[in-house]
Amino acid sequence: MKFLKKHARRLTQVITAVLYNCNITGFARGRIYTGSLKGVCVPGLNCYSCPGAVGACPLGSLQSALVSSKHGFPYYVLGLLILFGVVFGRFICGFLCPFGLLQELLYKIPGRKIKKGRVTAALSFLKYIILAVFCVAVPLLIFEPGFCKYICPAGTLEGGIFLSAANPSVRAMLGRLFSLKTLILIVIAVLSVFCYRVFCRFLCPLGALYSLFNRFSFFRMSVDESKCTRCGKCLKVCKTDIKKVGDRECVHCGECAKCCECIQCTMHNA
User: Fold this and answer.
1) HEC string for the chain
2) Model confidence over 130-156: pLDDT tens digits?
3) Which of 171, 173, 184, 258 places its Cα 20 to 30 Å from the Cα of 216?
4) Percent of the chain, pLDDT > 70?
């Protein structure tokens, strides 16, 4: 029981990644699952084109819906994203995102780590620009899923490398754009060894979207103000650029709660 309690978040991340990609035969056959479940979005960043994926990526679905918005308003996708945000906020980033898990595992590789500071805090705003430009403006104005097509490292790994590894016809279609995206993936992977969750903190538009709901989401990290001594331990132990527990940069990992008894994960208004 002590092991389960100590590693509860890591186990949740692993189980989530497996559930998102439980179409095991897809990895062997190099084929994408196209069953009825594919019409449902999973909460975290997980590529639709991954051969193991049994659900759709919310970010990819948003872009596709905006591309085709001239034929109808994307009520379903926007409504689902709002629901995810209101219920979970960036709890999804900390517990329910396979690409977040990958970055955390890479960060465990020994090496000199980049400490957070003014530069990393400023870079955290970049993800909002990517959300506005590549996930909203490009789909609406150029009719292309900008982030998925030109940037997404999760898509390159899951939908590009995994799929092409088992499917020769997919490999034959890969060109310069895939090479560029592979380079982006490699850079992010290398930086993840030295900088905690580099993609989540600085580049992920899905995290940017969920962060808008962070302060009032149902599941959240909160501080018992009556017990708080303003010692600042929570800010020091946190590896992200939070200014306050539960703000837009908080991924609700719970590390701060280990150093301070006045912090806990609560259900808002419960």
Assistant:
1) CHHHHHCHHHHHHHHHHHHHCCCHHHHHHCCCCCCHHHHCECCCCCCCCCCCCCCECHHHHHHHHHHCHHHCCCHHHHHHHHHHHHHHCCHHHHHCCHHHHHHHHHHCCCCCCCCCCHHHHHHCCHHHHHHHHHHHHHHHHCCCCHHHHHCCHHHHHHHHHHHHHHCHHHHHHCCHHHHHHHHHHHHHHHHHHHCCCHHHHHCCHHHHHHHCCHHHCCEEEEECCCCCCCCCHHHHHCCCCCCCCCCCCCCCCCHHHHHCCCEEEEECCC
2) 999 999 999 999 999 999 999 999 999
3) 258
4) 95
Which amino acid is located at 53 in the chain? A
C-beta separation of 264 from 233 below 8 A = no
* Domain ranges, ordered by start, for the chain: 8-219
For residue 127, give both structure tokens: 């993800």
pLDDT digits (tens, 9 = 90+) for 14-61: 999 999 999 999 998 889 999 999 989 999 999 999 999 999 999 999
- Kindly tell me if the per-residue pLDDT of 270 is higher than 50: no
CB 193 within 8 A of CB 109: yes
Of 260, 270, 253, the C-alpha closest to 227 is 260
